[in-house]
Specification:
With 294 residues, the protein is an all-alpha fold. It contains 12 helices and no strands. The protein has one domain. It binds zinc ion (2 copies). One zinc ion (ZN) binds next to α3.
Length: 294
Amino acid sequence: MLNGSAIQTVKQLKIRKRDTLMELNRENLILALPMLVVFAGLEALFLVLIRKQTYNWRESLASIGVALGEQIIRLTASTMVAAFAYGVWQYRLLTLSMQHALYWPLLFILVEFSYYWFHRFSHTCRWFWATHAVHHSPRHFYLSGAYRLGWTGPLTGGFLFFTPLFLLGFNPASVVAVIGLNLLYQYWLHTELIGRLGWFDRVFNSPANHRVHHAADAIYLDKNFGGVLMVFDHLFGTYKAEDNNSPITQYGLIPTVGSYNPVKIAFHEWAGIADELKAKPGVKARFWILFGKP
Ligand SMILES: [Zn+2]
Ligand SMILES: [Zn+2]
């Protein structure tokens, strides 16, 4: 039996862990956004001044607006997600202490595996696509689009894909840290300035692989779902290399969002779903509108 002070200590420990998770999210907000703006700005200047190309500044500003909104929502929702994660973690099968150096590469691979399926379902189930479509909405492949992420992730439960890791025994703060690094890695993928990289493209996610992922051309649809690695794409048959014989002709959604308003971008797909739900009566039809293929 725990006495009063022991219960107090356990409570404090839990609060401290939740704070760590909040802290990680806060650091993400402080570090990631300025980096996004600086490098995206340098890319824009390079394209305009050196390459003499046109640049869609409004689209990039819209991306930064969406990214800012997403960070604020993520911070707000992190208490709820942390409470859920630590609640689940209480029922873990093992206690995997991250002092053990080997658990970090193991966690990295498991996060990558979970991310692969999370991302694949984000393209094949409309419930998750409604959030993820926001990331695919830019019509240009700029660095500024890297963190144009949907606002409704905490609501749709994308974090459920990572729940088995908590049950296995990885503490939520470590899992969140590794997911954060995974997303940070993906920043440099969003550019046309880096060409194909040979063997690197076959093993790791790269700008060429991610261009394929964002391409709207039929031969490139639903390919390259990995975060850092292409291993699971090779394994599950979704890998596609950028093909010189089939140059990418368009990025983004068909039809396009047609707005630079971050709020409209964030809720564009949900608005489409709402219209379809209104138009089609019947539980079965509505179920497939929500959970079928986008
Ligand atoms: Zn995607
Ligand atoms: Zn992307």
